[in-house]
Amino acid sequence: MSGSNKRRIWIDLDNSPHVPFFKPIIDRLTERGYSVLVTARDCFQVCGLADLLNLQYKRVGRHYGKNVILKFYGLLYRSLQLAPMVFDYKPDLAVAHGSRSQLVVSKLLGVPSIMIDDYEHSRNMLKPTWIMTPEVIPEESMHSVRRGFIKYHGIKEDVYVPTFTPDPAIMDDLKLNKDRIVVTIRPPATEAHYHNPESDVLFAAIINHLGQMKNIQQVILPRNKKQESSIKQTWTRLFDRGIIIIPDHVIDGLNLIWHSDLVISGGGTMNREAAALGVPVYSFFRGKIGAVDQYLVKNNRLVLLSSVDDILTKLKIEKRDVESGNSPVNNGACASIVQSIIQILEH
Q1: Domain shared by 87 and 143, yes or no
Q2: Which tens digit of pLDDT belongs to each residue from 26-53?
Q3: Is the CB of residue 328 less than 8 Å from the CB of residue 277?
Q4: Domain carrying residue 40
Q5: Closest by Cα among 191, 34, 18 to 118
Q6: Which of 64, 76, 221, 240 qualifies as a FRET site for 299, CA 20 to 30 Å off?
Q7: Helix, strand, or coil (residue 183)
Q8: Whether 102 and 231 share a structural domain
Q9: Which of 312, 257, 320 lies closest to 284, judged by CA?
């Protein structure tokens, strides 16, 4: 496949989990001779992670906060920023994991689109041409599409976790003590449309509970600078004592999870990454629980924390033998997605 016959794919990255997810997909598509345009929204460390993974991309747009009016304005404005670039590129197919801006531009320019989604309770007003989900999500729970549903093996995190290689240098980088219990914590997505204030209460209770215990280091990964500032102001004493650490640069999230004794998160991706790596993980997400998380709970790979009592009774704070951990198994998730994209392009 070469010259004018080379099929063109536009991939849009608008949230941090999309970067590691699409990295192996992009690599496989380019290896097969396809041309791939990658655009990235400058928010939630998307661009920093793309740089860390050596992805070539065009930086377009940013985040406009929680206000509904500003969100809508940001959506339209970023769509207008993307449109000329996409029009010049003339993609044969648009692919994203929940990018609303891509749906708007694809609709305006008549570009067929694949929306990959692993949370059936997300909301989109525009319909993609196809929707692709993990096998555990029933078709009837997803919003309608113009042509059809596509299933892929495993879960989203199975696409990239099998390529992970641990690097113990992160312990020195973050000044983590190997003799202490390392707890990695991801705060709730306070600016997301699905945010439930109950998760804020649980987040504070978790920090306070762990802060009273001995021999623990908490590594907190805020979603933005505003959240980081709030955490530092609220728990100043724990920072001063070295109990709470916030990295001052972009790090490899999988590597941090692997070198943690347990993970506690108010969002979905880090929970599922920990589950895929076999690291004990607890979720205090208080929105509607999706089919993927229900699947992990059923298989004892994820524990839900629904109340302050759960924090006191369900959390098991103990050291994990990192050296004896099992390597994640490649179940063909990435190959399944790439094959589906190619089948649509060559149909």
Answers
A1: yes
A2: 999 999 999 999 999 998 789 999 999 9
A3: yes
A4: 3-162+331-345
A5: 18
A6: 221
A7: strand
A8: no
A9: 312
Q: Are residues 128 and 170 in the same domain?
A: no
Question: 161-164 long-range CB contacts below 8 Å, 24 or more apart?
Answer: 161/254, 161/273, 161/276, 161/277, 161/328, 162/328, 162/329, 162/330, 162/331, 162/334, 163/24, 164/254, 164/255, 164/258, 164/277, 164/328
Same domain, yes or no, for 253 and 341? no
**Angstrom distance (rounded) from CA 240 to CA 262:** 23
Give the CA distances from residue 38 to residues 145, 224, 226, 231, in Å, rounded to whole numbers and listed in that order: 24, 23, 27, 33
CATH of residue 58:
3.40.50.2000
pLDDT digits (tens, 9 = 90+) for 80-116: 999 999 999 999 999 999 899 999 999 999 999 999 9
CB atoms closer than 10 angstroms to residue 65: 13
- Cα angle 100-106-109, degrees, rounded to a multiple of 5: 145
Same domain, 133 and 238: no
90 conformational bin, left if phi > 0, alpha if psi -120 to 50, beta if neither: left
Based on the fold, state whether residues 131 and 174 are members of the same structural domain: no
List all residues 6 or more positions away from 321 whose beta carbon is below 8 Å from its beta carbon: none
Six-digit token string for 120: 């059936």
Predicted local distance difference test score (pLDDT) of residue 1:
47
Structural domain count of the chain = 2
Cα angle 136, 138, 144 (rounded to 5 degrees) comes to 135
- Please report where in the chains the tokens 């509970």 appear, as a residue: 209
